[in-house]
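the two lines:
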Amino acid sequence: MEPNGNKVLELSEAVRSLVNPGAHMSLGGFTLNRNPMAAIHEVIRQGIGDLHLYVHSNGVGLDELIGAGLISRLEIAYGGVGKATPTCIRFKKAVQNNEIQFEDYSNFMMTLRFLAGSLGVPFLPTISGLGTDIVEKWGFSPEFRRSESKIPDQKLVVMGNPFGDWAGASKVLLVPAVNPDVTLIHVQQADSVGNCRIEGLTFVDLEQAKASREVIVTCEELVDTAELRKTPERNQLAMFHVSAVCHVPHGAYPTACYRHYDYDPKYLQDYDRAAKNDNLYRQYQQQYIHSVFSHSEFLDLVGRDRLRVVQADPRTGYAVNMKRD
Amino acid sequence: MSGRKEYSSQEIMTITAAREIKDGDIVFCGTGISMLAATAAKRINAPQSVIFFETGAIDSWLEELPLSVSDPRIEYLAASSSGLVEAFATMQNPKTGSKVVAILGAAQIDKYGNLNTTSIGDYFSPRIRFPGSGGGCDVASFVPRGIVFMQHNKRKFVNKLDYLTSPGQLGGRGGRRAAGLRPGGLSVVVTNLGVLRFDPGGEMFLDGYYPGVTPEMILGHMEFGVDVSRAVEVDPPTQEELTILRDQCDPERLILT
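prediction for all of em together
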């Protein structure tokens, strides 16, 4: 595709063409902020399974994919939503019931892995985690690793500092690069060719996107290229990293999107209740994902009054005094 | 003062932890009560401390209490807003890394202050799965000082962790250095009963107990024994501390119950 070619697609079409069964996929956002929820729901609607998922800290998006039975393997640092759900419930159940293969890392290790992937280097060093079980316990066996060309033969490698004790480190932990087949991110603004503007915290979205072969961007606002190019210093991701641009307002709901809307504590609490019970959970995914055709229909079902409750206040970027207990 | 306690155990924990934070400290904040302690320190005893989050916000004011480290409330009036690469740089570079104080919680802790936030039981087939490291392992690996919040009971203060997620003193004296970590790490444990610290050999000892609690009671809530000979009673929170905590730090009662 031409770097400055038009990449605007319907979300359903983008997911159909870019997320394949068995794909290695990563999710942007962080716990309850800017999870690419619309794209995740579309993956679930299309039932694209046997996915190998990479996340650092993710919340409800991760949990819904696991709950839908689409994740076979998971590399993760943290699965939780904060106060309402300290540990993601379907993630917890799937691990406790041996339903997925999983492997633990730290947030910084996953960050470095995406960064290494974005830079095209095989690994990056850190001192984080030396002496811990994150180094000792491998979720994927050496045999499986050797048989699967998309993951490295070793989880992590500890070695002496090849520069002596330079920078005060005697040893380093090497973390291998991740280059996902596809990454899903949600941003505040994008243009038709894929230039992206994230307002506020970027988390690891930029490294994840640059490490990934294909990137599906959902955006709150689809804006003119000329407009974005007036202040290029505010655009963090250039068009050639992006495969598809999908205009999906409230595409991160029920997680937050800074300066647009807050997370929805009521939705997350209701989700929590449904996730604890297998029957309720099936009903929940049937009602909120499978019975609707688009994110817009999902939002209609949730009720536009909820969107008014979570609407961001222009002064703070979040919903001031929203009921959150 | 009447015989009835005028503060909850959550409140004395929060204030006790807040007192550990000094002006000039850069406070790495997790979720829940650790966020409240950092906010309390900033508003009570360490106005020149800086709160930052692994998600990338620095010097957040926290007009409303965030419920997660990715809550958009951490962005309001922050000095800078970036991403995880930048946040982990704050924890490690020579200029700021030495001033960072971590505040963490855990499911299990051992006598060397190592933490488990991953799972109970066999790792591959756990009885209970928790969220995992997040940035906990990283910050515990990097920082010179840190505060751990724990509920005091035998299931949490254990002889052997089911999974070592975040390094404390590892195997004891010299453990961090042998593994390749810098000295330091988590330095104080604040519980619902008292305060524990680590001696030069890396082992936990009881430093303080709250009014109404005895060292013997505390030992009864731990699987392993600790030296209690140095323990003194902790000063209870003052009326002023409690007022600021309740009215300014958590008026919505999101953490305080």
